[in-house]
Write a structure and sequence with these properties.
Blueprint: H1 4-24, H2 33-46, H3 50-77, H4 95-100, H5 103-118, H6 124-142, H7 165-191
Helix pairs in contact: 1-2, 2-3, 2-5, 3-5, 3-6, 3-7, 6-7
C-alpha cells in the first residue's frame, strides 16, 4: 500500500538525521515526541502499521501544527510567535542541522497520508497515552533540566520554582492525553472513520 521508494527515501533521511543528531545533540534529545515520531515512522512505513502511524499522529499532529505556525509565522513576518522554533533562526547552528529539522513540516503530512492509506486505528489513543506515560517520566529522570524536553520541568524557568516538579510532571501526564491526544483522536476518527 505504501510505495517502496517512499520507504527507502524516508528511512535514509531518518538514518542521516539520527547520525547527525547523535553527534550534535545530547542523546536525551531523541526523547522529544517529534523525534520519537520521526524514528517510529520508519517501522510504521515498512510494516504498514496503522496502529503505529495512528499513534504517532495522535502524539504529534497538534504540537507540529503549532511548530509550523511558529516557524512559518516568523519566516514570513520576522516576528517571534513562540520560543518553540527559536533554534531554527539561530545563526550559531549550522544550516544543515536546521534543515534536518524541517521534518517537522513534512512528517505530519506523511502521517496523515499513511492513515488515509492504512486506516486510523482507534487503539492509538490508549497506546499513545501509555507510551507517553513511559516517555515523560523517563525524560524527567534522564535529561537536563535546562533542555526541558517535552516541557517536563515546567513551562518556563521562572515558573519552575513555583510548583513541585513531580506535581508538574503528574499534571503534564494528565494534560498530554486530555489536551493533545483526545482532541486529535476525535478529529482523526471523524476524518478517517
Amino acid at each position: 500500500m505504501i510505495p517502496l521508494w517512499m520507504k527507502i527515501i524516508y528511512t535514509l533521511f531518518t538514518v542521516v538525521t539520527i547520525v547527525v543528531y547523535s553527534v550534535k545533540y545530547p542523546l536525551g534529545n531523541f526523547l522529544w515526541f517529534s523525534d520519537i515520531a520521526l524514528v517510529l515512522t520508519v517501522p510504521a512505513l515498512w510494516y504498514e502499521s496503522s496502529l503505529l502511524a495512528s499513534m504517532m499522529a495522535v502524539g504529534i499532529l497538534l504540537p507540529e501544527i503549532f511548530w509550523n505556525i511558529g516557524f512559518f509565522g516568523r519566516l514570513l513576518t520576522g516576528k517571534r510567535l513562540s520560543g518553540l522554533t527559536d533554534y531554527m533562526f539561530d545563526a550559531q547552528k549550522p544550516r544543515y542541522l536546521r534543515a534536518l529539522s524541517l521534518f517537522h513540516v513534512f512528517l505530519p503530512v506523511l502521517l496523515l497520508w499513511m492513515i488515509a492509506r492504512l486506516g486510523y486505528s482507534p487503539k492509538a489513543l490508549i497506546a499513545q497515552t501509555v507510551f507517553a506515560w513511559i516517555v515523560l517520566p523517563l525524560t524527567y529522570v534522564i535529561t537536563d533540566k535546562e533542555q526541558n524536553i517535552n516541557g517536563v520541568f515546567g513551562p518556563s524557568s521562572a515558573q519552575r520554582d513555583r510548583l513541585s516538579s513531580i506535581l508538574y510532571l503528574g499534571l503534564l501526564m494528565i494534560a498530554f492525553p486530555a489536551v493533545v491526544y483526545v482532541p486529535t483522536h476525535l478529529l482523526l476518527m471523524a476524518l478517517y472513520p
